[in-house]
Amino acid sequence: MNTDNILITCIASEGHADEIMSVARQAGARGGTVLGARGTGTEEDVKFFGISMVPQKEMLLIVAQADLVQTIVAAICSMSIFSDPGSGIVYTTPVHQFHILGQCE
């Protein structure tokens, strides 16, 4: 099924996913998925991207309606845990198809 959904991905230091998801829900997100992750950047990558890489990260994936994405991303970006440069990243990706398994057409 074609959709007007967008995938919001937020990568932050381990331990912040619940707080981020709470803020995202207040901004209109319905739910998300948390994955454990770790950075693999080199010293040059860290300097190039300006991100302080620590081994343990959490990746939060949220599929949201396109009209809510700007509000959700702005809410995440305004969190105090992201006040320092390099404390995390958030980006969006178009979702071309979305199916609830068991209800596929």
UniProtKB/TrEMBL annotation:
Family matches, as SUPFAM superfamilies: GlnB-like
Any one GO biological process: regulation of nitrogen utilization
Gene Ontology molecular function: enzyme regulator activity
Superkingdom as given in the UniProt entry: Bacteria
Family matches, as Pfam families: P-II (PF00543)
Name of the protein described by the UniProt record: P-II family nitrogen regulator
